[in-house]
Amino acid sequence: MIHTLHYISQHSTANGHIENISQACEAGCRWIQLRIKQETQEQVLPVAEAVKKICDSYGAALIINDYPAIAVAVGAAGVHVGKNDMTVKAARAVTGPDMIVGGTANTTEDILQHVADGASYVGVGPYRFTSTKQNLSPILGLEGYQRILQELRQQRISIPVIAIGGIQEEDIPALLETGVHGVAVSGLISGAADKSATVQRIYELVNRQTIWNH
Ligand SMILES: Cc1ncc(COP(=O)(O)OP(=O)(O)O)c(N)n1
Ligand SMILES: Cc1ncsc1CCOP(=O)(O)O
Ligand SMILES: [Mg+2]
């Protein structure tokens, strides 16, 4: 089952990612994506091994950003790949059929391709501008999600859509109303003064909507 709250790590150092993920787990996050940019696969591997142990101790699922081979090597739950990484099909060829493979999408066409390639979920964004990621695709806004989710329903396409990009707590109810399955956030939790309280409020928002939708 794809969770409704995805936490994406961010820090400038390897140890910072480990600390960052420990804190997110301690605050209650149970779906963690290790996202280290501007490091080699060799440098990311030991960090992935360390955070896998942390995630296991909290019963949290670990997704590795960009590197399917690392996801396989550390026994992570899955991998997330974007347009500049590789296709979902290529990632799936590395992970095999059972691992979670997520793909980034900015359009309905992107989503259809990921579905055809065997994606488990799609990360769709950005919702709004964010400084967490560089070279953003066109901003979708609420209208973008309304249009894309409607197109998916019209085409009878069913795949968990995870909204991402600059998402704040107050955005979540309206985003879920569009039909998205959940949200992926980084800055909202990384920068929170009280991470536990923030995570608890986000879970209440995403889970309340899940109950309404079913
Ligand atoms: C859940 C989720 N959605 C989208 C992304 C973005 O992935 P990508 O486009 O490959 O960009 P980077 O994160 O690698 O900079 C994501 N990581 N997670
Ligand atoms: C990885 C990624 N992909 C699109 S926006 C984004 C960053 C999400 O982080 P934040 O929640 O801090 O905007
Ligand atoms: Mg990527």
From TrEMBL:
Its annotated pathway reads: Cofactor biosynthesis; thiamine diphosphate biosynthesis; thiamine phosphate from 4-amino-2-methyl-5-diphosphomethylpyrimidine and 4-methyl-5-(2-phosphoethyl)-thiazole: step 1/1
Chain sites annotated for binding 4-amino-2-methyl-5-(diphosphooxymethyl)pyrimidine: 33-37, 65, 104, 133
- Tell me which CDD domains the record gives: TMP_TenI (cd00564)
Q: What is its EC number?
A: 2.5.1.3
Kindly give the Gene3D superfamilies that the UniProt entry links to this protein.
Aldolase class I
A Pfam family: TMP-TENI
Q: Out of the domains of life, which is the source?
A: Bacteria
Q: Which residues bind Mg(2+)?
A: 66, 85
Cofactor names from the entry are: Mg(2+)
Quote one Gene Ontology molecular function term. magnesium ion binding
* Annotated ranges, domain Thiamine phosphate synthase/TenI: 14-186
Q: Which GO terms describe its biological process?
A: thiamine biosynthetic process; thiamine diphosphate biosynthetic process
Q: Which GO terms describe its cellular component?
A: cytoplasm
Annotated residues for binding of 2-[(2R,5Z)-2-carboxy-4-methylthiazol-5(2H)-ylidene]ethyl phosphate: 130-132, 166
Does the entry feature the keyword Secreted, yes or no? no
Job description of the protein = Condenses 4-methyl-5-(beta-hydroxyethyl)thiazole monophosphate (THZ-P) and 2-methyl-4-amino-5-hydroxymethyl pyrimidine pyrophosphate (HMP-PP) to form thiamine monophosphate (TMP).
Give the family per the record.
Answer: Belongs to the thiamine-phosphate synthase family.
> Which protein is depicted?
Thiamine-phosphate synthase
Identify the species of origin.
Chitinophaga solisilvae
Quote the gene name from the UniProt entry.
Answer: thiE
